[in-house]
Specification:
Layout: E1 2-7, E2 32-37, E3 44-52, E4 58-62, E5 66-68, E6 72-82, E7 94-98, E8 107-113, E9 125-126, E10 132-133, E11 136-142, E12 151-160, E13 165-169, E14 173-175, E15 179-189, E16 201-205, E17 211-216, E18 229-234, E19 243-247, E20 250-254
Parallel strand pairs: 10-16
Antiparallel strand pairs: 1-2, 2-5, 3-4, 3-6, 6-7, 8-9, 8-11, 11-14, 12-13, 12-15, 15-16, 17-18, 19-20
Length: 262
């Protein structure tokens, strides 16, 4: 049989169960792994090991321990040999899982929504980053890849008018706050490696109608002169995009310049 232990990259390579080494739990890890054979009987002369790596290459040796430092799913096997040079077959396979490479930086998708709060993007229309919308925005990370252990979870960080969160685990986030909000994502794998954060997605929400005030030169009384209308509007978020007026029941777009309709 074999016992497996963690050891860190910045330690000198162990050749025994050094103080502080923890037993390997069989999961993906960022740490190197040491294997020690156990048993062999009173006629034991030496041990021999074989390490089979992800790419099919092998490493062999004659020693009472071996260290696995290569990333991926590596297999350690041992055999015992006696004084006459007779050796057993290789033992059962002991898998070691090492991953020190962070996932790729995720991309971000944005969708508009209104009504019931969504938990998926099904049926939602895409929202263009850094544009104004009157709807809420559903945000998801996607397209992050990991070479070894696989993606375990995503984390986001937010700022701006939305509630500020840092390194929060989630698969999506709904943004409802008016004004400008910023959200970025990173991916973390099963060994605990996390990618760098993506760039900020910029979400601009304005769900409040502008207000308008109208004053006219006649004070609302009958007059035999032309009448001037003076318009003013208040818009605190996205700003005024266009003006429209109704004249004799027709609705037309209006440019804010003097127009003679006498």
């Amino acid at each position: 049989t074999s016992r497996l232990y963690f050891w860190r990259n910045n330690n000198s390579k162990p050749d025994d169960i050094n103080p502080g080494l923890m037993e390997y739990d069989g999961n993906w890890s960022k740490l190197n792994i040491m294997s020690l054979p156990v048993g062999g009987g009173k006629y034991l002369d030496h041990y021999e090991f074989k390490i089979t790596y992800d790419d099919g290459t092998t490493s062999t040796g004659r020693r009472s321990y071996c260290n696995v430092e290569v990333e991926g799913d590596s297999i350690v096997q041992w055999k015992t040999c006696n004084l006459d040079g007779l050796c057993t077959d290789y033992s059962e396979e002991y898998h070691t899982y090492i991953d020190r490479t962070a996932p790729s930086v995720p991309e971000i998708k944005l969708f508009n929504w209104s009504g019931d709060r969504p938990s998926s993007s099904d049926g939602l229309m895409e929202y263009s980053n850094n544009t104004w919308t009157k709807n809420n925005v559903y945000v998801i990370p996607f397209n992050s890849n990991d070479a070894h252990s696989g993606i375990a979870y995503y984390e986001y960080t937010t700022r701006g008018t939305t509630t500020a969160n840092t390194n929060t685990k989630a698969t999506y986030r709904n943004i409802k706050s008016k004004g400008e909000s910023y959200i970025k994502w990173r991916a973390c794998d099963k060994a605990g490696n996390c990618s760098k954060y993506s760039g900020d997605a910029i979400i601009k929400i304005d769900s409040t109608n502008p207000t308008i005030n109208i004053n006219n030169s006649s004070g609302g009384k009958w007059t035999n002169r032309n009448v001037s209308l003076y318009l003013s509007s208040k818009e605190n978020e996205s700003g005024i995009s266009s003006w429209y007026y109704s004249y004799n029941s027709d609705i037309e777009e209006y440019s804010p310049v003097t127009e003679d309709r006498s």
